[in-house]
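Deliverable D5.2: sample structural annotation.
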Amino acid sequence: FCLMQALNVLDSLISKIMSAESNTKRVANFSAGPSVLPEEVLNKCQQDLLSFEGCGQSVMEMSHRSTYFSKIYNEAEADLRSIGAIPDNYHIFMLQGGATLQFSSIPLNFNIEESEIPPQYIITGGWSDKAFKEAVKYNPKTECLYNSTKSDPPCCSAPKCTDSEEIKVNEDAPYLYICVNETVHGVTMRDLPKTKKVPIIADYSSCFLSEPIPWKECNFGIVYAGAQKNIGPAGLTIAIVRDDLIGNANKKCPVILDYATWKKKPIYNTPPCWSIYVMGLVMKWLKNTIGGLDKMKEIND
């Protein structure tokens, strides 16, 4: 009891010190990697740093099997589903390894090594190019429908995906891969593919939750994103996977990359607890302070 009181007093002192320094000038961050977090979220992190809700532990210290972290995880997942308007037939997985690890996870889960028809990729910059090259390791026949890295100058445009002459999609392919926003080359796909059968795999890393995701207009199979650009610190990757696409992984797929593992047990191993906690705070900020993704799009536009 005395220890808890001491921690609460220390928490209070730190909060007062931090609030006194809250006028510290903030920089405009346009760097690669981690991006800006809302000050409201950072202040809450400071408040809870030593003792989350008076439990005597930081989120960075507590067990991922504890009731405290279960609450953090469940609220973050529920808020993300609500804010992102994610349909019920999609699972939300909170993973590690960055978006880059999904370059391998996706072809392994679709078992493209044994697929008679190869997957298709639209390359609009460095990230989709890396994803394509990874897929080729599993199926050398992986098809590139469009590649702006070959143009001069490179990566200055995205294709018109509604133009069937420019983009010849095979609806029987395992999937069609796109990167919605290429940070290195500064290319955004405003015209997303509208497929009938083939699922779209979309890397949303650098624009995730900056505007509503068009679930009804696009036949998404997987939407995934690294957290560090918009919704939290580095170390967390969000993968939103349609239920019917789970359970078909290559037999050699590592258990940690198999979506079926995470469907069965969402916290399979120790997750990036702190990053999930901060992501949950960002969800509440998006919901309560910003007012949702439509409002966020208005701000961004």
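Annotation notes: Strands lie at 90-95, 120-123, 143-147, 176-179, 181-182, 187-188, 200-203, 220-226, 237-242. The two ends are 51 Å apart (CA to CA).
The annotation will be released with the project's public dataset once the embargo ends.
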